[in-house]
Amino acid sequence: MSAHPDPYPRIAISLAEQTLTLFGANGTPVDRWPVSTGLNGAGERDGSGCTPRGRHYIRARIGARQPVNTVFRGRRPTGELYCPELAEQYPGRDWILTRILWLCGTEWGVNRGPGVDTFRRFIYIHGTPDGEPMGVARSHGCVRMRNADVADLFEQVLAGTLVDIT
């Protein structure tokens, strides 16, 4: 019996390198971007502010056809576009911009289930203000990307795409 290739690309996120690599269906790297993961490091516990490790998949793609810098609250566009004036109005807000790839864990007791559920923790790959540093862990647990980068990635993946966070 011969194995058939996965019809979706695959994503690998390196917490140590602060990078996200997109692999094509044939397993070769297609693109690589700098990211910013959890300031509190790696971890799966609810309320930890850590980025969960292990095997995940994209459960939902949110923001198709929205303009770059669209502001999201509760996974819905607010009708605002991020700008310095808006940032001044809401200092300290964890901005979720442009696109959202909502992750779901696949490993029961590790990143899925009571106390450790990536999906219920609202862990996303999402855009962030372009002035935020990449390659440095500073998020509240999500995987932040530059807006143009997350829009590019969004167009290359589908719900069901596997995401490995190591």
Automatic annotation (TrEMBL):
Its annotated pathway reads: Cell wall biogenesis; peptidoglycan biosynthesis
GO BP field: cell wall organization; peptidoglycan-protein cross-linking; regulation of cell shape
* Residue intervals of the L,D-TPase catalytic domain: 9-166
Show the active-site residues. 126 (proton donor/acceptor), 142 (nucleophile)
List GO terms (cellular component aspect).
Answer: extracellular region
The residues forming a coiled coil are none
Mind listing the UniProt keywords for this protein, alphabetically? Cell shape, Cell wall biogenesis/degradation, Glycosyltransferase, Hydrolase, Peptidoglycan synthesis, Transferase
* Transmembrane annotation, as ranges: none
Q: Write down the InterPro entries for this protein, in alphabetical order.
A: LD-transpeptidase, LD_TPept_cat_dom, Transpep_catalytic_dom
One of the entry's Gene Ontology molecular-function terms is: peptidoglycan L,D-transpeptidase activity
Q: Which domain of life is it from?
A: Bacteria
The family database entries (Gene3D superfamilies) matched by this protein are listed as: L,D-transpeptidase catalytic domain-like
Q: Which family does it belong to?
A: Belongs to the YkuD family.
Q: What is the name of the protein in this document?
A: L,D-transpeptidase catalytic domain
Which species does the entry assign this protein to?
Marinobacter persicus
Source organism phylogeny: Bacteria, Pseudomonadati, Pseudomonadota, Gammaproteobacteria, Pseudomonadales
